């Protein structure tokens, strides 16, 4: 098929990001290509690795992988990629490119087996997106779109904190405007999410799930008009649909509410994604590449309706720490001391309530169990200052919406229906967008289900 070279203005560009399941196989990629083709403002495409590939690469990057396992992993990855390229009418060039990448990957993996470094890990982790972006550019060509591969490491400049590199926004903006933007008038550029390069040119990664964040940063850097995040669900839901089948997709939501949801555990977007979009005021669309016509969620600064209740988020495995000191009575400086200990151990407090002699707090831990974060050392240090009690097995529920503080009856609408559960540590968030509390882990699903029925379906 001939490729249609259409000129568009760089004034109205959509950055489209496709997640791992959206580029999992050839059929999935074709659906994405169709999305790009149907809307000619889609000029910059950011892809994740095909589903499963990054997990294989993570294993490959670890210490102690035998040469047999190494070869097995590389074969598994090769199988995923070649299963896609075998659908192309002309395969030779792309297969050569994939083979060359596999050889280079094997080199890094062998080096890693000899001497494990985090720098080498990032080289290894970056391959998933390198494969998928090359392949997707060719899928675009197959459907008649002038798609071209672009190496994100040319523009996404970072520090050298391998595995969790921080992006230099000034360099990114300058590079993207100089190297990327001019290409977009005639080409649809396909680049990698998740990866960047440090000042020496070594490959870096932005942290798992970082492709959303890459796409948002690129959208900001080129001052795009829109950012579309294509995933495998039709937008953001009122709550986790695995908890209740009453959950439904939200049409429109403000940046403030969506940021709150991302922080409180809605896993659909990488939590940092909205920051660049908010800075540059770029509306974000979240939809499913499997059902592009089924709608999705639009996230933007102003929305038409601002209901009191928008969604319910649930975060599991919370740890509650209560510190108690009679000294707190009429004393000042106690909290400062407690926070100094926490800051030293890089623990960030999530919810906090205080009474005359005690302070209760939970810890912000989007990446897993707080149990691991709250080490014996931290507890011992706090014990120097006061009595400490630590409780695990709790879940944090956040009711997210608008003017939650200023609306009459919020307390009874939320708590009346769940008053047979042990609800603890009720906190009105500082942002006016949420109200949070803790429940025992075992009750969490039931509480969410019942609240959802009360707040959304009646
Ligand atoms: N491929 C990377 C990961 O699986 C980045 C991403 O998909 O966002 O974490
Ligand atoms: Mg992802």
From TrEMBL:
Pathways per UniProt: Amino-acid biosynthesis; L-methionine biosynthesis via de novo pathway; L-homoserine from L-aspartate: step 1/3; Amino-acid biosynthesis; L-threonine biosynthesis; L-threonine from L-aspartate: step 1/5; Amino-acid biosynthesis; L-lysine biosynthesis via DAP pathway; (S)-tetrahydrodipicolinate from L-aspartate: step 1/4
PROSITE patterns: ACT, ASPARTOKINASE
Binding, ATP: 17-20, 231-232, 242
Superkingdom to which the source organism belongs: Bacteria
Aminoacyl-tRNA synthetase keyword on record: no
Keywords: Amino-acid biosynthesis, ATP-binding, Kinase, Nucleotide-binding, Transferase
Enzyme class of the recorded protein, top EC level: transferase
Entry binding sites for substrate: 54, 129
GO cellular component entries: cytosol
Reaction catalysed by this enzyme: L-aspartate + ATP = 4-phospho-L-aspartate + ADP
Family to which the UniProt record says this protein belongs: Belongs to the aspartokinase family.
Name listed for the protein in its UniProt record: Aspartokinase
């Amino acid at each position: 098929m001939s490729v249609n070279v259409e000129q568009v203005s760089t004034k109205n560009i959509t950055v489209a990001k496709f997640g791992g399941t959206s580029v999992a196989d050839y059929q999935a990629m074709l659906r994405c290509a169709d999305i790009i083709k149907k809307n000619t403002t889609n000029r910059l495409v950011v892809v994740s690795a095909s589903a499963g590939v990054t997990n294989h690469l993570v294993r490959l990057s670890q210490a102690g992988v035998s040469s047999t396992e190494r070869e097995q992993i590389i074969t598994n990855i090769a199988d995923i990629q070649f299963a896609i390229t075998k659908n192309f009418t002309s395969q030779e060039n792309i297969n050569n490119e994939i083979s060359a990448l596999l050889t280079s990957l094997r080199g890094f993996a062998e080096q890693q087996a000899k001497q494990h470094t985090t720098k080498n890990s990032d080289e290894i982790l970056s391959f998933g997106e390198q494969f998928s972006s090359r392949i997707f550019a060719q899928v675009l060509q197959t459907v008649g779109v002038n798609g071209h591969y672009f190496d994100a490491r040319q523009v996404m400049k970072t520090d050298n904190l391998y595995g969790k590199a921080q992006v230099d926004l000034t360099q990114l903006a300058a590079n993207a405007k100089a190297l990327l933007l001019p290409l977009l008038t005639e080409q649809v550029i396909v680049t990698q999410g998740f990866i960047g390069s440090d000042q020496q040119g070594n490959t870096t990664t932005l942290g798992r799930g970082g492709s959303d964040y890459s796409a948002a940063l690129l959208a900001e850097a080129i001052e795009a008009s829109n950012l579309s995040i294509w995933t495998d669900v039709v937008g953001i839901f009122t709550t986790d649909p695995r908890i209740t089948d009453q959950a439904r997709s939200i049409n429109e939501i403000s940046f403030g509410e969506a940021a709150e949801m991302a922080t409180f555990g809605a896993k659909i977007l990488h939590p940092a994604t909205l920051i660049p979009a908010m800075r540059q005021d770029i509306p974000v669309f979240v939809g499913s590449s499997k059902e592009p016509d089924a709608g999705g969620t639009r996230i933007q600064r102003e929305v038409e309706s601002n209901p009191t209740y928008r969604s319910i988020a649930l975060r599991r495995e919370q740890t509650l720490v209560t510190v108690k000191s009679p000294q707190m009575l009429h004393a000042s400086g106690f909290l400062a001391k407690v926070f100094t200990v926490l800051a030293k151990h890089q623990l960030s407090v999530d919810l906090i309530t205080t009474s005359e002699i005690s302070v209760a707090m939970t810890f912000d831990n989007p990446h897993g169990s707080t149990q691991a974060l709250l080490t014996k050392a931290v507890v011992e240090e706090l014990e120097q200052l006061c009595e400490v009690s630590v409780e695990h097995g709790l879940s944090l529920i956040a009711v997210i919406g608008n003017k939650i503080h200023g609306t009459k009856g919020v307390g009874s609408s939320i708590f009346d229906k769940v008053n047979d559960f042990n609800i603890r540590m009720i906190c009105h968030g500082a942002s006016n967008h949420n109200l949070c509390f803790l429940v025992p882990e075992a009750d969490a699903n039931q509480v969410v289900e019942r609240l959802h029925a009360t707040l959304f379906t009646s």
